[in-house]
Specification:
alpha/beta, UDP N-Acetylglucosamine Acyltransferase, domain 1, 3 helices, 30% strand
């Protein structure tokens, strides 16, 4: 098996460990974490801070994966991804064995598909994104880089989601819409019209917060 280091030791790392163990392709060397009171997560040791990453790479570990989730701010994930790439790590695509993924889809590096996700034909998902548990991404959707789709979300066909956007748990987006960059959509929302970049929306139907 190929050795991999995980970057980030929060709750999201537990799901990534589960994905890796479901496929048996990688052996997790350890987890780096900015600060933690724990010594291990699901039996995987926390081996130090992110400052160790360059040394880990020089010791022959080729693979790394970002295990930091985000709620409304995708910036840290993006920063860590760029750091890992600049060091030289390969960032794989991780797909849980219980995800349903069309062979006619395209999934970028650093993206994880969690258990129960359904990815239908002609879907394109960019780099460093999270498609969380039980989400459904219908045909012809395009999801750009560094996007988080929270558990139970449904995107109908031909939806486009741009970079650095967070879509909250249980959101439904009707067909053919475009969601801008750096958008936050609150949990349980129903999106029935396009969402402009750099906005926060929520509700049924979803409206810009503060209006």
């Amino acid at each position: 098996m190929k050795s991999i280091v995980l970057i980030g030791g929060g709750g999201h790392s537990k799901v990534i460990i589960d994905i890796i163990r479901s496929t048996n392709e990688y052996k997790v060397l350890g987890i780096t974490e900015k600060s933690s009171n724990s010594k291990e997560i699901l039996g995987i040791p926390i081996i130090g801070s992110d400052d160790m990453l360059e040394d880990i790479y020089k010791k022959g570990v080729e693979y790394a994966f970002i295990c930091v989730g985000a709620i409304g701010d995708m910036g840290l994930r993006n920063k860590l991804y760029k750091k890992a790439k600049s060091i030289g790590f390969k960032i794989p695509t991780l797909i849980h064995k219980h995800a349903v993924v069309s062979s006619y889809s395209n999934i970028g590096e650093g993206t994880c598909l969690m258990a129960g996700t359904i990815i239908n034909p002609n879907v394109k998902i960019g780099k460093n994104s999270i498609i969380n548990t039980g989400s459904i991404i219908e045909h012809d959707c395009v999801i750009k880089d560094n996007v988080q789709i929270s558990p139970g979300t449904i995107l109908a066909g031909n939806v486009k989601v741009n970079n650095d956007t967070f879509i909250g748990m249980g959101t439904k987006v009707i067909q053919g819409l475009t969601i801008g960059s750096n958008v936050t959509i609150g949990a349980g929302s129903v999106v029935i019209k396009n969402v402009e970049s750099n906005t926060k929306v929520a509700g049924v139907p979803a409206r810009v917060l503060g209006e």
